[in-house]
Design brief:
The protein has about 600 residues and is an alpha/beta fold. A hairpin with a 2-residue loop joins strand 8 and strand 9.
Length: about 600
């Protein structure tokens, strides 16, 4: 435009007017002249309606804040209509600090050659920065996004500052790349935060951030040491498929933490609250610790994190799945494993359990089999897979206080096999034994034997018969009360049978017959076998029962009472000296396995 035409155009502009400068090349003085024409005399600030700057070029500094126009100074600009900066090229500094965008702000595909400042800016509508390139530092600190904030596939080569930024709508950073520091400290996400497939090659800091919805980091890549928390999330933090190449400490308070197929190439510490953790198919190349933190996290200012979005939930940490995980590098501290799926994990015998890690419990109380026979389950630690299998085969799959159904109930094809559950019990038993926790190992040995006893397809009938007998008389050598009860019954039966058929009615009298030949006497002694002569009703006397009791007690400790016995009584005593010491030993073994630690 000629100088006269330009003056006429600018003179016709009023505050709040719509402007269309698509493809225009702006120098710094020309931009100042345009803003001077749009200056509102009441507020002392430029006011722009619909602003179309798409594909424009700003050759110098483009300041929509902190600008001095003659004697007038203003700090921010106001865009009351759509602000279009799509594909704009900013050669120098782009300043929008504390600017107000009442409607949509579109910066998609823009290139910021210098620093870009949006600190304190207010975006009342949607803000789009997708595919934008920030070659210098970019500052969005304390900015407010009322609508959707889209930074998908944006490239940040300098420092990206989002400290104390407020996102009230969805915040999307999917496939964005941060090659410099990315600061999200104390940022507030009132909706969802999406960082799927985002790449962080510089320092990433999320200390003190809060997400009311779901935070998704699926497929993200962290190549340097990130500061991941304290992060408070009202729903799910999803780091599925994320690659952590450097050591990381994650301090997360969230309802769920999804780490499916996550790769840790270095050490990691997951300090969690409220979360249910899914580690399905996670790849652990270095030691990983999952720790339940009892108290709220503290920020750098030594103030407790605001966990108000989670107050209604249990602050404990639950592990939902270890399927496909090599547990040799895994340490669990103070976690709840009652719903955890172990079948499919590797090296469970090397899993380290620290602190108070709880497992599912067998159902308590009295139950009824086929609504006829009462029974009571033994109180012990169990795996979730055993609950799922027993619920599948039970008459009532999920009675109150009963076996809990699995996620794929009632499909038997997706339920774990008894061989797999027995193997998981066996490996975890070794983990408890290596940790010198004999009571815990005893429970898992019991679970392993239970799976073998019920496994009709994998074990022959003879082996299952022995297991049934072992279970019945002593609970696999782990139930002292059962072994002592069987010992008492065996002793009572032995006393009764000895009193009836084992003790003779009268002590046999030996008779000697001799021959005198010269000075030599030859004697022959005949000792008749003890015999019963009285009727059965006369054999149950207190004296005979007392004698039989002495024989039985001595048999238990491998001693002979020296009592005359009938032939039947001798066989009864032999059987007693074999069976009853075994029952006593099983009772002692069961007590030892419960008290040794």
């Amino acid at each position: 435009m000629s100088e006269s035409d330009r003056r006429a155009y600018l003179a016709a502009l009023t505050p709040g007017a719509d402007i269309d400068h698509r493809g225009t090349r702006f120098t710094e003085p020309l931009l100042h002249t345009l803003l001077q024409a749009l200056l509102d005399p009441v507020t002392g600030q430029p006011s722009i309606g619909i602003a179309a700057f798409d594909e424009a070029t700003f050759t110098g500094t483009a300041r929509f804040d902190k600008v001095t126009l003659g004697q007038a100074k203003f700090r921010l600009a106001t865009f009351t209509g759509h602000a279009g900066f799509g594909g704009v090229k900013f050669a120098g500094i782009a300043g929008f600090g504390e600017a107000t965008f009442s409607s949509t702000a579109f910066f998609g595909g823009a290139t910021f050659g210098g620093d870009a400042w949006f600190g304190g800016a207010a975006f009342g509508g949607h803000a789009w920065f997708g595919d934008a390139t920030f070659k210098g530092n970019s500052g969005f600190g304390a900015a407010t996004f009322r609508g959707t904030a889209g930074f998908g596939r944006a490239m940040f080569t300098g420092e990206a500052g989002f400290t104390r930024t407020l996102f009230t709508g969805h915040a999307g950073f999917g496939e964005a790349t941060f090659t410099g520091p990315a600061e999200f400290g104390e940022a507030r996400f009132a909706g969802d935060a999406g960082f799927a497939r985002t790449t962080f090659t510089g320092h990433a800091w999320f200390g003190g951030a809060t997400v009311a919805g779901t935070a998704t980091f699926a497929g993200a890549i962290f190549t340097t040491v990130p500061v991941f928390g304290p992060l408070v999330c009202g729903e799910t933090v999803d780091v599925s498929g994320t690659l952590f190449e450097a050591p990381v400490t994650m301090e997360v308070a969230a309802r769920r933490l999804s780490c499916a197929r996550t790769r840790w190439e270095s050490t990691a510490t997951l300090r969690l609250r409220y979360a249910t953790v899914d580690l399905t198919d996670a790849v652990l190349s270095s030691p990983i610790a999952v720790t339940a933190v009892p108290a709220p996290f503290s920020t750098a200012a030594v103030t407790a994190s605001d966990e108000s979005v989670l107050r209604a939930h249990d602050p404990g940490v639950r592990v939902a799945s270890l399927r496909g995980v090599d547990a040799a590098y895994l340490v669990l501290t103070g976690t709840d494993l009652s719903i955890c799926l172990f079948v499919g994990a590797f090296h469970l015998d090397q899993l380290r359990l620290e602190g108070r890690c709880t497992f599912a419990r067998a159902p308590s109380g009295i139950h009824w089999r086929h609504k006829i026979w009462p029974y009571r389950w033994t109180h012990r630690r169990t795996l979730a897979e055993e609950h799922h299998w027993r619920a599948l085969v039970a008459d009532n799959p999920a009675p109150p206080r009963g076996w809990q159904i699995g996620p794929n109930h009632p499909d038997p094809g997706l339920a774990p096999g008894l061989d797999d559950v027995a193997a998981a019990y066996r490996q975890l038993r070794k983990a408890f034994e290596d940790g010198k926790n004999e009571p815990g190992a005893a429970d898992f040995y019991y679970g392993e034997m239970e799976m073998r006893r019920h496994n009709r397809a994998g074990n022959p009938a003879g082996e299952r018969g022995l297991l049934w007998a072992y279970w019945l008389i002593s609970g696999y050598g782990l139930r002292a009360s059962r072994a002592l009860a069987c010992l008492g019954v065996a002793m009572a039966v032995t006393v009764l049978t000895l009193a009836l058929w084992g003790l003779p009615t009268n002590a046999p009298t030996s008779r000697s017959v001799g021959t005198l030949t010269g000075t030599t006497i030859a004697l022959t002694t005949d000792s008749p076998a003890p015999a019963l002569t009285t009727s059965i009703r006369h054999r149950l006397t207190a004296q005979r029962v007392e004698s039989a009791s002495r024989v039985v007690v001595n048999s238990v400790v491998f001693r002979s009472a020296g009592q005359n016995l009938t032939t039947t009584g001798s066989f009864i005593e032999m059987a007693s000296r074999i069976l009853e010491p075994v029952l006593l030993a099983l009772a002692v073994l069961a007590v030892r396995s419960r008290v040794k630690r």
